[in-house]
Design goal:
Layout: E1 6-10, H1 15-26, E2 32-35, H2 43-46, E3 57-60, E4 63-65, H3 68-80, H4 92-106, H5 117-123, H6 139-155, H7 176-192, H8 206-213, H9 218-223, E5 226-227, H10 230-239, E6 262-267, E7 277-284, E8 288-292, E9 298-302, E10 306-310
Parallel strand pairs: 1-2, 2-5, 4-9
Antiparallel strand pairs: 1-3, 3-4, 6-7, 6-10, 7-8, 8-9
Helix pairs in contact: 1-7, 4-7
Amino acid sequence: MPIPPIIAFDYLFAPNAQKARNYLFLTKTPFSICEQPFALPRPDLTGLGITYRRVPVLCIGKDVFPDNASFLAAMQELLKKESKALRESHLDSVYEAWGYRSFWLALPCLPGEFMTPQLAKDRANLFPVFAREDFGKLQPSARSEFRAFLDGAEEGFLSNTTDAAPFVGGEKEAGMADVFAVWIIKWWVETIGLAEETGHGRNLFPKMWRWLENIPKQVDGEKEQKKIPVEEATKQLLSSAYAMPDIGIDKNDTLGLKEGERVSIEASDAVPGTHPQYGKLVGLNKAKTVIELENGLRMHFPKVGYFVEKA
């Protein structure tokens, strides 16, 4: 059975969107883009009943993934059936944690002029550092800290890489470890322009630069994908089949929820009550919670990083 249409509701500048796109580019998986605005409101998503505010929102048929963790796991499950999945290892979760840490280190590195009052207000509920009055003064220290983090990669998991084997651990082909670890560094170099900063050049981080250059560029990859309006995206989604099998309800789960109950889900690191997602519980296991919206779309949230409760 072919994989249903994949649609990314995102925008190129978003680092989390680039993480998902890196995976799709590396696996040569075609997808469509329904481009979203940089800040709220995002009527394309609310029109589908999706009130969770972060992007990317990634769809595989009628299955919706508002978090990269659940999307990447789903894609690996589907592509393994076609022998197209990326290599996995027992250390992937370590690289995933490293990648998330790099995200938080990168935020205060952004130029002070980048933080407009509108953006600071829009992102304050998600990233409190953006609301700091002294944000414009954080860059020198933050970039020095980020540079130390890059050195950890250069002298650590990239230390045995070569021209013939440039990926994490000295591998010849990219694996999930690369997807988990590279996204923020790649975002900084390609999108923000870290390459222009002193102290981050090829002479100091040759292995890091070689690593980045062996992963498709975001701008080039985007050109190969189809951009579609929300009307077409909605039509495709609602007329598609579900890509993922039912997972049932784990009766031993400590949430104590029952199938069909209306629940609320929100990110655990956001201000409570700002952008919860509501839906009918249709799936619950050790890894994720699945809710169904009134239009039949099913949203898959990972357990880690989210609060779930009966609405």
